[in-house]
Specification:
alpha/beta; 398 residues; binds nicotinamide-adenine-dinucleotide; single chain; 7-stranded mixed sheet; Rossmann fold; 2 domains; 14% strand
């Protein structure tokens, strides 16, 4: 079979010769008892770069020794890109949300042999899920592989926004020492109201991680959490996103992108937020309206916006979020720490082993199976597509 794998570029200075840490901590299970990825074996050293082109998700030896062809590229956007050329006779396509290959309906319809799209990570919105359903292409992701990595990033971003770390760090880097400049936007989070839009694996972990800061915790989700969890965290459940944003000083967004959540944070919803609130969005860029966020930061309706997700990706060089005031954006990195890469590379290998051996892929990994939303797809997504406008990614110039 032919496997097409779209990965981000190697470091500009080439693959690292060594890494800061000699090895990774060993984890036994995810917090709910789910086992970590369990491939029969792996051909990479956990802790090394795997998500870039030369890292190949550690798959080449395994695939070639089993008679398969592996094509890896980062060239994924403009007309005539290598990924489009290779897609037409590929059986499986692997892509990461950090450098998403937007599997639009046109692309899906060009790929007559395509059987499965694997997301090396979590979040399969870069696939036109409706087109995948219509053409009976299975979509799977490595559920839980980087949920806790993202929750750590959320805590970092909440603290750095509210305390205004970015401004203070810049003052030092620029050789300055004006304390008043450094603290004129700096607060403690203690006592604030912090809410998550969605309390799935990431949202709930972010709430748990924020609890020791003595904040008031809130959530909104289409699925209510068990009473025991609400009690443990002293959580306030909201029936609607409007109700949550009205009372929260900090809102973190942790739902998948699908037609129900696309453009959720528009002018109207942002204007219902508490004046001067902060948003941390590590879910997907398109859940927030690009112009509405920039406008609210300028007017002071929002005091800060941080996250690592943009639309499209890579973000065009002139994307307004690069230059708006009081933002703490990073490129899409929270779920691709070296730690997370080891887990999702192993998860992709597990999925491929199951596929080749005709064994069932774990139910929680399924987004679409046999033309229907299945597994986590049925729990967390709605039918339709959120890939519209993704061709703008071709505007990014390296
Ligand atoms: P999850 O499936 O465990 O949780 C998703 C939650 O969203 C579920 O509880 C679901 O009920 C809720 N939800 C879905 N639609 C909703 C709606 N319309 N209104 C309210 N709640 C809704 O997934 P997770 O592991 O927590 O990941 C969530 C999302 O975070 C992913 O889909 C992905 O988009 C994003 N993510 C980002 C990164 C990153 O690197 N930045 C990494 C992993 C995941």
């Amino acid at each position: 079979m032919k496997i097409l794998c779209i990965l981000y570029d190697d470091p500009k200075s080439g693959m690292p010769k060594n890494y800061p840490l000699p090895n990774l901590p060993k984890l036994k299970k995810y917090p709910d008892g789910m086992t970590l990825p369990t491939p029969k074996s792996i051909d990479f050293n956990p802790g090394e770069l795997l998500g870039c082109v030369s890292g190949e998700l550690g798959l080449r030896k395994f695939l070639e020794s089993n008679g398969h062809q592996l094509v890896v590229t980062s060239d994924k956007d403009a007309d005539g890109c290598k990924a489009d050329k290779e897609l037409v006779d590929s059986d499986i396509v692997i892509s990461q949300p950090f450098w998403p290959y937007y599997l639009t309906r046109n692309r899906i319809e060009s790929a007559k042999k395509l059987k499965m799209a694997i997301t090396a990570g979590i979040g399969s919105d870069h696939v036109d899920l409706q087109a995948a359903m219509d053409h009976k292409i299975d979509v799977v992701e490595v559920t839980y592989c980087n949920s806790r990595s993202v929750a750590e990033h959320i805590v970092m971003m909440i603290l750095s926004l509210v305390r205004d770390y970015h401004n203070q760090h810049k003052i030092v880097k620029d050789g300055g020492w004006n304390i008043a400049d450094a603290v004129q936007r700096s607060y403690d989070v203690e006592g604030m109201h912090v809410g998550t839009v969605a309390a799935g694996r990431i949202g709930l972990d972010a709430l748990r991680k924020m609890k020791p800061f003595d904040v008031h915790l809130h959530y909104f989700d289409r699925h209510k959490l068990p009473d025991s969890v609400e009690k443990e965290l002293n959580l306030t459940f909201h029936e609607s996103v409007e109700s949550l944003v009205k009372v929260c000083d900090v809102v973190t967004i942790n739902c998948p992108l699908h037609p129900e959540t696309e453009n959720l944070f528009d002018d109207k919803l942002i204007n219902k937020m508490k004046k001067g609130a902060y948003i941390v969005n590590t879910a997907r860029g398109k859940i927030c309206n690009r112009e509405a966020i920039a406008k609210a930061l300028k007017s002071g309706q929002l005091s800060g916006y941080a996250g690592d997700v943009w639309f499209p990706q890579p973000a065009p060089n002139d994307h307004i979020w690069r230059s708006m005031p009081n933002h703490g954006m990073t490129p899409h990195t929270s779920g691709t720490s070296l730690t997370a890469q080891a887990r999702y590379a192993a998860g992709v290998r597990e999925i491929l082993e199951c596929f080749f051996e005709k064994k069932p892929i774990r139910d929680p990994y399924l987004i679409i199976k046999d033309g229907q939303l299945a597994g986590m797809g049925a729990h967390s997504y709605s039918k339709g597509s959120a890939t519209g406008g993704s061709e703008e990614a071709a505007k990014y110039k390296k």
